[in-house]
C-alpha cells in the first residue's frame, strides 16, 4: 500500500465530478494530507493502459503523446513518470476488466510512491551540437555521440538508452526534465563537437534529469589521431561522476581502436549517417564502404556494417547487381567475425547479415546471444535475434525479441520491427493480429512492402473491398505490386506464399 500507516482509510475511490461533468479518480491519503483528483476520464485511462501494456500497437507519435500525458499525471500524483507508466503496464498484464481500470489504477498507485524502478543508473546521450561552422560536418558530431554511447555501454552497471531514442530530440529545444521523464533516465549527457583541420574539441556536461542540476562539465582537446582516446575519456569521466566508488576501468579495458586510418574512420561515419538517413543514396553508400575497406581491410565495425548494408539492399531490391551484392555481403560479414572479439555491434551486424545470406542460422543465433550476454540492453541485438528466430521457424519467440527491442528503444522508428511482428503473425495465419500491427505500421512507414502485407491480410480475411482499396493506394505509390525477389522467399516461405496468394486474390477481384 502507501509508504505510511493508513489503517482502514480507503486509499482510492471513484467520484462523480460536480455537475455530472464526468468521472474522476480520487486518490486520498487522509493522514498524509493528500487529496488528489486525477484529471483523466476512465476512457482516457483505459486508452493509456492499452498503449503502455502493448507499446507495439501505437505509432511513435501516439506513444510520445501518451508518455507526455503520463508525465502530467505523475506530477499531479507526486510519482515518477516511470511509476505511472508502470501502473498502466501492470494493468494490462493483469487483464483488468475495462470498466474496473480507473479503480485499479488508484489501487496500484497507492503502492508506488516516488522512487526509481531501475536499480542501475540510467543515462541518455543526446545529439551533440556541431560547432565546426560547417553543416557538412554534422555527420562527424553524430558519429562522436555514437562512439561515446558505445563506450558508456561497456560499463555494465549503467543502463544507456539507445541512440535511436536519443536522436529523436535532434534539432529540438530540449527540456532536460521532460527528456528524463520520457526516456526514463536519471542522467542526460549533452555537449558539442568542434572539428577544425586536424584538431578536435569535445565538450560535454552531465545533468541530473529530475533536478536539472549540472553535475559535471569539461572539454577534451586533441588531434584526430587521438579521437578514440577523447571519446573514452568522456565516457570514463561520466561514469566516474555517476558512481565514483565503482571501477571505470571497464571502459578502457574493452576499448579497442577500430582503425588506425583516420580517413577510413571518417568515411565510416559518413556511411553510417547516410544509412540512418531517410534519403538513402544507395550507390554512394556502397562506394563509401568500398573506399573505407580499401584503406583499411581490417576495420571490423565497417566490415560488419557493410555486410548489414548489403543485406538491406537485397531485401529492399536496392542493388543493381544481385550476385555481386550477395558476394560482398558474405565476404565482409565473414571477415568481420574474425575481427569481432567481444564487440557486440560487430557480432550482431555480421551474424545478422551472414544468417540472411545463407550461413547456418543456429550458429548465427549463438553469436547474437553472445553479443546480448555482453550487452543485454542492445536494442539492435534483440531486433536481429527476432529476425533470426523468425527465419528458423520460431515466430512467437521472434515477436517477444522484437518487442524487447522496441521497449529498449522506445522512441525509435518502429517500421522494421512492426514488419517482422506482422510477418510472424501471418506465418501463424493470425491475420487479425497481423492486420492490427500493419495498420499502425502504415501510419509511420507507408512502404510498398507494408501495403502488400495489408492487402494480403484483407484478402485472406475475405475483406476484398478493403483489399481493393489498399491495392489502389499501393498502385499510387509503386509500380511494383509484388515484393522484390530476395532470399526472404527461402527464409520465410510461408509468409511470402501468403503475401503472394493474397495479392493475387485482390488483383483478380479488382
Concise overview:
With 510 residues, the protein is of the alpha/beta class. It is 58% helix and 11% strand.
Q: What is this structure's SSE topology?
A:
Blueprint: E1 12-16, E2 23-29, E3 34-38, H1 42-53, H2 60-77, H3 81-94, H4 101-109, E4 122-125, E5 129-130, H5 138-153, E6 159-160, H6 163-166, H7 176-183, E7 187-196, E8 199-208, E9 213-223, H8 227-242, H9 249-254, H10 262-276, H11 282-295, H12 300-316, H13 322-338, H14 344-356, H15 361-374, H16 379-391, H17 395-408, H18 415-427, H19 431-444, H20 448-460, H21 464-477, H22 488-491, H23 493-509
Parallel strand pairs: 4-6, 4-7, 5-7
Antiparallel strand pairs: 1-2, 2-3, 7-8, 8-9
Helix pairs in contact: 1-3, 2-3, 3-4, 5-8, 5-10, 10-11, 11-12, 12-13, 12-14, 13-14, 14-15, 14-16, 15-16, 16-17, 17-18, 18-19, 18-20, 19-20, 20-21, 20-23, 21-23
Description:
With 510 residues, the chain is α/β, with parallel strands linked by helices. It has four domains: 12-109, no CATH class; 122-254, ABC-type transport auxiliary lipoprotein component (Rossmann fold, 3-Layer(aba) Sandwich), CATH 3.40.50.10610; 259-375, Serine Threonine Protein Phosphatase 5, Tetratricopeptide repeat (Alpha Horseshoe); 396-510, Alpha Horseshoe (Serine Threonine Protein Phosphatase 5, Tetratricopeptide repeat). The chain has helices spanning 42-53, 60-77, 81-94, 101-109, 138-153, 163-166, 176-183, 227-242, 249-254, 262-276, 282-295, 300-316, 322-338, 344-356, 361-374, 379-391, 395-408, 415-427, 431-444, 448-460, 464-477, 488-491, 493-509; strands spanning 12-16, 23-29, 34-38, 122-125, 129-130, 159-160, 187-196, 199-208, 213-223. Strands 4, 5, 6, 7, 8 and 9 form a six-stranded mixed sheet that branches. Strands 1-2-3 form a three-stranded antiparallel sheet. Helix 1 (42-53) packs across helix 3, helix 2 crosses helix 3 and helix 15 packs antiparallel against helix 16 (379-391). The chain is globular, with a radius of gyration of 25 Å. The model is unreliable at 1-38, 108-118 and 245-254 (pLDDT under 50).
Amino acid at each position: 500500500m502507501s509508504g505510511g500507516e493508513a489503517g482502514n482509510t480507503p486509499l482510492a475511490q471513484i467520484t462523480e465530478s460536480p455537475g455530472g461533468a464526468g468521472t474522476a479518480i480520487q486518490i486520498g491519503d487522509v493522514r498524509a494530507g493528500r487529496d488528489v483528483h486525477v484529471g483523466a476520464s476512465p476512457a482516457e485511462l483505459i486508452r493509456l493502459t492499452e498503449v503502455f501494456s502493448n507499446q507495439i500497437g501505437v505509432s511513435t507519435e501516439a506513444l510520445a503523446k501518451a508518455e507526455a500525458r503520463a508525465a502530467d499525471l505523475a506530477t499531479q500524483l507526486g510519482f515518477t513518470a516511470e511509476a505511472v507508466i508502470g501502473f498502466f503496464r501492470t494493468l494490462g498484464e493483469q487483464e483488468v476488466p475495462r470498466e474496473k481500470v480507473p479503480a485499479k489504477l488508484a489501487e496500484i498507485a497507492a503502492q508506488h510512491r516516488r522512487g526509481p524502478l531501475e536499480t542501475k543508473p540510467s543515462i541518455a546521450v543526446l545529439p551533440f551540437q556541431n560547432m565546426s561552422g560547417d553543416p557538412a560536418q554534422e555527420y562527424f558530431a553524430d558519429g562522436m555521440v555514437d562512439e561515446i554511447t558505445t563506450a558508456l555501454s561497456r560499463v555494465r552497471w549503467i543502463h544507456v538508452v539507445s541512440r535511436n531514442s536519443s536522436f529523436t530530440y535532434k534539432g529540438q529545444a530540449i527540456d532536460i526534465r521532460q527528456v528524463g521523464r520520457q526516456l526514463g533516465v536519471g542522467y542526460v549527457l549533452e555537449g558539442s563537437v568542434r572539428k577544425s583541420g586536424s584538431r578536435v574539441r569535445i565538450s560535454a556536461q552531465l545533468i541530473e534529469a529530475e533536478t536539472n542540476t549540472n553535475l559535471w562539465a569539461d572539454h577534451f582537446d586533441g588531434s584526430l589521431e587521438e579521437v578514440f582516446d577523447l571519446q573514452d575519456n568522456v565516457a570514463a569521466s561520466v561514469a566516474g561522476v555517476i558512481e565514483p566508488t565503482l571501477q571505470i576501468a571497464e571502459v578502457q579495458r574493452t576499448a579497442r581502436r577500430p582503425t588506425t586510418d583516420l580517413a577510413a574512420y571518417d568515411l565510416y561515419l559518413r556511411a553510417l549517417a547516410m544509412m540512418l538517413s531517410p534519403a538513402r543514396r544507395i550507390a554512394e553508400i556502397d562506394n563509401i564502404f568500398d573506399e573505407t575497406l580499401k584503406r583499411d581491410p581490417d576495420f571490423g565495425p565497417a566490415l560488419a556494417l557493410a555486410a548489414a548494408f548489403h543485406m538491406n539492399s537485397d531485401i529492399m531490391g536496392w542493388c543493381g547487381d544481385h550476385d555481386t551484392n550477395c558476394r560482398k555481403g558474405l565476404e565482409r560479414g565473414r571477415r568481420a567475425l574474425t575481427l569481432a572479439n567481444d564487440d557486440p555491434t560487430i557480432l550482431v551486424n555480421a551474424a545478422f547479415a551472414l544468417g540472411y545470406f545463407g550461413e547456418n542460422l543456429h550458429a548465427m543465433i549463438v553469436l547474437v546471444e553472445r553479443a546480448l550476454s555482453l550487452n543485454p540492453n542492445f536494442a539492435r541485438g534483440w531486433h536481429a535475434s527476432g529476425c533470426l528466430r523468425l527465419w528458423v521457424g520460431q515466430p512467437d519467440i521472434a515477436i517477444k525479441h522484437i518487442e524487447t527491442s522496441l521497449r529498449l528503444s522506445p522512441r525509435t522508428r518502429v517500421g522494421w520491427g512492426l514488419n517482422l511482428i506482422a510477418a510472424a503473425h501471418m506465418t501463424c495465419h493470425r491475420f487479425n493480429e497481423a492486420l492490427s500491427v500493419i495498420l499502425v505500421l502504415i501510419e509511420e512507414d507507408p512502404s510498398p512492402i507494408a501495403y502488400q502485407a495489408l492487402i494480403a491480410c484483407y484478402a485472406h480475411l475475405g475483406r476484398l473491398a478493403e483489399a481493393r482499396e489498399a491495392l489502389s493506394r499501393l498502385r499510387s505509390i509503386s509500380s511494383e505490386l509484388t515484393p522484390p525477389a530476395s532470399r526472404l522467399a527461402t527464409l520465410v516461405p510461408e509468409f511470402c506464399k501468403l503475401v503472394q496468394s493474397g495479392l493475387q486474390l485482390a488483383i483478380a477481384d479488382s
